[in-house]
Structure formats: structure tokens, C-alpha cells
Amino acid sequence: MNNTLHHHLAPKVQEQWGPPLPDNGSLNGSLGDMNATGIAQIMIPQELFLMLGLISLVENILVVAAIVKNRNLHSPMYYFICCLAVSDMLVSVSNVVETMFMLLTEHGVLTVTAGMLRHLDNVIDVMICSSVVSSLSFLCTIAADRYITIFYALRYHSIMTTRCAVAIIVLVWLASITSSSLFIVYHTDDAVVACLVTFFGLALVFTAGLYLHMFVLARVHSRRIRALHKSRRAAATSMKGAVTLTILLGVFIVCWGPFFLHLILILTCPTNPYCKCYFSHFNLFLILIICNSLIDPLIYAYRSRELRKTLKELVLCSWCFTM
């Protein structure tokens, strides 16, 4: 069986830059599996990947369904959150499809050809790269949306119209798919990884800059909003959205940060013993990436009473339907 199918979530990244896999090709190992450098490679059971992938997939489907169902959630910010949930779904779907494919093949239920493996590998790569690029882009977009809400409250609805939001969403997805395709074509070039890491850094700097300005001047601007006969609740709602985004970005950094650090170390010190030791934890970084897709829906529900209410209705309806 082609080794690239054993590299959960980032087949071509690990094929080129990840730690070598055990000769037996099995993921059902432990700390005892050794890579080519003699450093113990931490292995994760396929069943854990599958379980986390299925849970996060169901959660994000519920989030998308809730936003579509509830008209009170039909606003630019929730459109962007919906797209962020779709980005997380790409990780979940790719993980579930790859893991099930591997399990069926290893148990002799499914027979595949080299061509099928190559096509599946390419599809999964596109989904993963699209997920990370679109996630970062929509986090930046939500940050900009909250910034406009707080500092240009009186002009917000004329600036961030539904047409503008749709145009941004289409542009982000087109850019994500295009960059993913280029990643597939030029995956052996270090410049591709350098571009991905640079984009990650720029997105964090951009969002952090907006945050700094928002939280330093938010209270002053909130007073101006109230002075112009806007309700105290409107100002509080805008800040609540900014806090929600802060939590989302923090979780994203914690979950994706180790993976991007892995890429940086691959480019800067691929032969350093300490770097090689870090590389041996690659599968744990992939688990963290899946956990990001699993945690995000919980943050949406916790921070939005309206969304939480709609999610409860959907879960109850689904439960009653199955009874």
C-alpha cells in the first residue's frame, strides 16, 4: 500500500518533510516504533483519528445547519463563521475518508491500484490545504468585520453589505482552491512551504494588529456609540464578537502552531538532533489539528445564545426523528 495514505491530514507534507514511517506501514503502533533516525516515532491508532473526525464532522454540520435555519443568524459575521465551519469540515471529511480507506484496505475489504491511491492523495491534499488557507482567511475576515462593527458602527451596514460578504466568501474560496492546486503541483519545492508559513505569520500579525487597536480603544468608542443614541447592548454585542474571535484565534494557534513550527524547522534545521526529536511528534500535531475542528463548534455555541438555542432544537428534532 502506498505510504502517502498513512500520513494523516498532510500526505504530501509528510511525504517530503515528515518523519519516515515504519516499514510495516501500520499506524496502530506506540512509542516503540522507530523512524530512520533512531528516534521513537509516536504513532496514533487509526480508530482515534476516525472517532475524532466523525465527531467534529457532525458538530460542524450542525453549526452550518443552524446558521442556515435561523434567520436571526443571517448576517455577514455568521456567514463567515459558517464558512469557517465548512473549512473545519474539510479537515474532518478528509480525515474520515482517508482513515476508512486505510482500514478497509488493510483488512482486505478494498483492493486499490496505484492510480486510485494517487488520486485520493491529491484530493485529500487539496482539502487540507484549502482548509488551512480558508480558515486563516476567514479568521482575518471576521477580525476585520468586528473592527468595522466597533469603529464604524454607524456605517457598518453600508460597508459590510450581504453582497460584499458574498464577494469576500467567493474570493477566499477561489484563492484557497487555487493555492491548494499549486501546492499539489509544486509540493516538492521548499518555496511552497515557505509561502504557507509566511501566510500563517502575516495572518496572525494582521489579526493581532486589529485586536490591539480594538481592545485599546474599544471602551472609548463604546462611549461615543452611546453618546450617539446607540444602545449599550449594541456596543456590548460588538465586543462580544471580538472576544469570540480572540478565543477562536487562540485555539487555532494552539492547534495549528506545532504543525507550522514543524514546517519551519524542516526548512531551517532538518538534520539537527533536537529538530529530529520534535519531528517524532508529528502525529500528535495532526491530532491537534483535528481537535481544532472539534473545538470550534463548541466555542460558537458557548459564545452565541441564539446559535446555541438553534443547535438544541436541531439536536432534539434529530433525536425525536430517530425514536
Description:
One of its GO terms (cellular component) is plasma membrane. InterPro entries: GPCR_Rhodpsn, GPCR_Rhodpsn_7TM, Melcrt_ACTH_rcpt, MSH_rcpt. One of its GO terms (molecular function) is melanocyte-stimulating hormone receptor activity. With 323 residues, this protein is mainly alpha-helical. The chain has one domain: Rhopdopsin 7-helix transmembrane proteins (Up-down Bundle), CATH 1.20.1070. The protein is built from eleven helices and no strands. The longest helix is centred in the middle third of the chain and has 38 residues. The two termini are 42 Å apart.
Briefly summarize what is shown.
This protein is mainly α and 323 residues long.
How does the SSE layout of this entry go?
Blueprint: H1 11-17, H2 46-69, H3 76-106, H4 114-151, H5 156-159, H6 162-185, H7 190-227, H8 232-268, H9 273-279, H10 282-303, H11 305-322
Helix pairs in contact: 2-3, 2-10, 2-11, 3-4, 3-6, 3-10, 4-6, 4-7, 4-8, 7-8, 8-10, 10-11
Work out the number of β strands.
Answer: 0
Portion of residues in beta strands equals under 5%
> What is the fold-level CATH name, i.e. the topology?
Rhopdopsin 7-helix transmembrane proteins
**Low-confidence segments, ≥5 residues, pLDDT <50?**
1-37
GO molecular function, one term: melanocyte-stimulating hormone receptor activity
Protein name: Melanocyte-stimulating hormone receptor
Keywords: Cell membrane, G-protein coupled receptor, Glycoprotein, Membrane, Receptor, Transducer, Transmembrane, Transmembrane helix
Membrane topology: Multi-pass membrane protein
